[in-house]
Write a structure and sequence with these properties.
Protein name: Ribonuclease P protein component
Structural class: alpha+beta
Oligomer: single chain
Largest sheet: 4 strands, mixed
Distance between the termini: 31 Å
Order of helices and strands: HEEEHEH
Helix content: 40-55%
Number of strands: 4
EC number: 3.1.26.5
Catalytic activity: Endonucleolytic cleavage of RNA, removing 5'-extranucleotides from tRNA precursor
Pfam family, one: Ribonuclease_P
InterPro entries: Ribosomal_Su5_D2-typ_SF, Ribsml_uS5_D2-typ_fold_subgr, RNase_P, RNase_P_CS
Shape: globular
Amino acid sequence: MLARPFRLTRGTDYRSVVRRGVRCGGARVITSMLATGEAREPRFGFIISKQVGTAVIRNTVRRRLKAVCARVIADVPEGTDVVIRALPASATATFAELDADVTRCLARLSRERASA
């Protein structure tokens, strides 16, 4: 579970990450990352629309994504905001598949950020 300091809570924060951040897409999720330059913990936000499925399925996907992010939080650079948008294919994905997609995208976006 992600503690409060590690979560995005404002709509303006979500909007800025999605619009100005770098993006990595996959079959199940789209990950957007924005380096803010602030000295604080990385923050994560999740967008799971009704296209993913019923409320039970959406909450299951959200809990799995939160668990993945809690596991990889040490690998995300300080002061980074991350938004993960679940696609309809994430409804049938296993935890391992979601974990592979998210970690692949976070690693790629961190490399791009370091090289820039």
